[in-house]
Amino acid sequence: MTQPERPDWRPTWRKPVGIIGLVLALCVYVFAVASASAIIGGWHVLLQTLAYVVFGTVWLLPLRRFLIWMETGRWG
After folding, report:
1. How far apart are CA 8 and CA 47, in angstroms?
2. Long-range contacts from 21-24, C-beta under 8 angstroms, 24+ separation
3. Could you give the CA distance from residue 57 to residue 63 in angstroms, rounded to a whole number?
4. Residue 41: per-residue pLDDT
5. b (16+ CB within 10 A) / e for 49-63
6. What phi, psi does 43 have (nearest 5°)?
7. Average pLDDT estimate for 16-40
8. Whose CA is closest to 22, among 74, 63, 64?
9. Nearest to residue 22, comparing CAs of 65, 56, 72, 73?
10. What is the pTM (predicted TM-score) of this model?
11. H/E stretch holding 45
12. pLDDT tens across 8-23, in order?
């Protein structure tokens, strides 16, 4: 019987760099949204809710490709 082929488990530089980059990018994004809260705070409560729901989910859009890059080195 042959052994199943084992994946290569060597660590890459992409994961630590990707995690640091992700944390830094999220900090910048959070600061930008928090800075906009002075403007958004004057809106009607339903518009505020909609804005924060959009801001709370829009950062997820590039996350999939970024995580794929961290794992494989390709952007897709």
Report:
1. 50
2. 22/66
3. 11
4. 95
5. eebeeebeeeeeeee
6. -80, 165
7. 95
8. 63
9. 65
10. 0.74
11. helix 45-58
12. 677 789 999 999 999 9
